[in-house]
Amino acid sequence: xxxxxxxxxxxxxxxxxxxxxxxxxxxxxxxxxxxxxxxxxxxxxxxxxxxxxxxxxxxxxxxxxxxxxxxxxxxxxxxxxxxxxxxxxxxxxxxxxxxxxxxxxxxxxxxxxxxxxxxxxxxxxxxxxxxxxxxxxxxxxxxxxxxxxxxxxxxxxxxxxxxxxxxxxxxxxxxxxxxxxxxxxxxxxxxxxxxxxxxxxxxxxxxxxxxxxxxxxxxxxxxxxxxxxxxxxxxxxxxxxxxxxxxxxxxxxxxxxxxxxxxxxxxxxxxxxxxxxxxxxxxxxxxxxxxxxxxxxxxxxxxxxxxxxxxxxxxxxxxxxxxxxxxxxxxxxxxxxxxxxxxxxxxxxxxxxxxxxxxxxxxxxxxxxxxxxxxxxxxxxxxxxxxxxxxxxxxxxxxxxxxxxxxxxxxxxxxxxx
Length: 418
What we know:
The chain has helices at 8-17, 32-45, 74-88, 107-111, 116-133, 151-172, 193-210, 237-249, 264-273, 282-304, 316-326, 336-339, 343-348, 350-360, 368-383, 390-408, and strands at residues 24-27, 49-53, 94-101, 137-140, 178-181, 217-219, 226-227, 230-231, 253-256, 277-280. By secondary structure, the protein is of the alpha/beta class.
């Protein structure tokens, strides 16, 4: 049974009072395996499970649903998290978070340059579904507007959506919801002190005037940028500490995005400099994909040695290479040097194609042909005792990657404070 919900804001306050500096980890639920691995890791280390889902990943079917796990809406996503928690016996705090909720956050809305009124109406519809399904942390991000927008307009849209969410929450009798505001630029870089401070000042004043709750966290750029299979930015801990201090002075936590692939040294300093939370998503999908590719190498050895007929092999590797090229938004995750190459040139480059497959594998995990290929792969490597349990092999690789952040963010045992 899932524990009674304690708002993250309350948990953060208790951690500060207890003198327990830590950085909360938001896990991108890019696959069933990642969800399972995260819950196992949180159970093992007695810390909260925090899942972040964007609108492109999970949304109403009437709005196009999401690409995760065969196309999930909010209700199905929450049901999956709770069912998986029950299955593995995780009874700690579970936070279901909307990452980058708001207008123009789906590609079709942004690329179609939906008018402000239409985009805002869609955002309200999506947020209502979040609240009805049981999301308890909402990131309100209207910054992807395809039209020129001032800081005042950004603040006004944030306040408008937050006021709407609060009205829905109260009408349903739901408990408190944590809110996150602001957004990192997808191009990375650093948030200027002046812009950050002005945005916080204007927004917190507007929320006070409207009698609305203050956000739990505000997003700021820290120099990080996730591309390919690494962090191509440079984490600036001194500037991050400065921004976190500004947020703290306003009674707001500081949230970092684009945190994938950071070193242990960079992660360990996060709690010390006041980073309240950090999101990691693509890295865990890549770890799962690499685990699958490792199993395909074992299968290939069976074929080379004559134990398995070539025609009987799973062919998961070539399928992964083909489908990630045709069925994933791979240019988004490549460097400019790669994404700007002619598509035909990329298609012929075996090294780049493998990189695309590793980085974007999670986009195709739920294609029926891929599910069938994975099942065959598991059966082959288990039949010849190459691994005892192929599914556990993959889950434990991902769990280990998640535990890396749990350890360095000092999250072990904090459930005792809830």
